[in-house]
Write a structure and sequence with these properties.
Blueprint: H1 3-22, E1 24-32, E2 38-40, E3 45-50, E4 57-64, E5 69-76, E6 92-93, E7 99-107, E8 110-114, E9 121-124, E10 127-129, H2 131-134, E11 139-149, H3 150-155
Antiparallel strand pairs: 1-2, 1-11, 3-4, 3-9, 4-5, 5-7, 6-7, 8-11, 9-10
Length: 157
């Protein structure tokens, strides 16, 4: 194999690898104060927590838009502060005892505070991301939809 052909092959491989590492991919980005970013696939997910007053689990289901989130459902067991009061869809009782509200409201970003007291977590495809174990108590977290190059995902920031 000639030297010129070897350089062309190596150069082509370098360009392909560079393209792969720099090509942005749509991701759910979890950005916490003073911690590296955490990435999830851009698929439907749930945010779970224990309501601070009612002491019952609450969770919301989010779909992914072009560059935002759509809060599709809210599930809770008891009525109290912050509970939705109306829905365009009929309210449903689930088999596991939750009241299910269909909402379909868009959100450009999601902001929350993580706490072990409320067991803040994200559930996606039967995988649980225990935010309350990943971050210090009362850490502010911003969740966004972004196009992120693979190199940034690998380097964690």
């Amino acid at each position: 194999m000639s030297s010129k052909l070897k350089w062309m092959i190596m150069g082509s491989m370098f360009v392909v690898l560079l393209f792969i590492f720099l090509l942005p991919q749509k991701k759910i980005v979890i950005d916490a104060e003073a911690a590296g970013d955490f990435y999830l696939p851009p698929e439907t997910f749930e945010i779970h927590w224990i309501h601070s007053v009612e002491k019952e689990e609450w969770f919301e289901v989010y779909d992914i838009g072009d560059d935002s989130f759509i809060l599709t459902e809210s599930h809770f067991k008891t009525f109290g502060a912050g509970v939705p009061s109306d829905s365009d869809e009929q309210v449903e009782m689930t088999d596991d005892g939750f009241v299910k509200y269909v909402i379909n409201d868009p959100y450009p970003d999601i902001y929350l505070n993580v706490s072990e007291n409320v067991k803040t977590k994200i559930v996606q495809d039967d995988e649980e991301v225990l935010l309350y174990e990943m971050y210090e108590p009362y850490t502010a977290v911003e969740i966004t939809v972004e196009n992120v190059p693979l190199i940034k995902q690998i380097l964690g920031g």
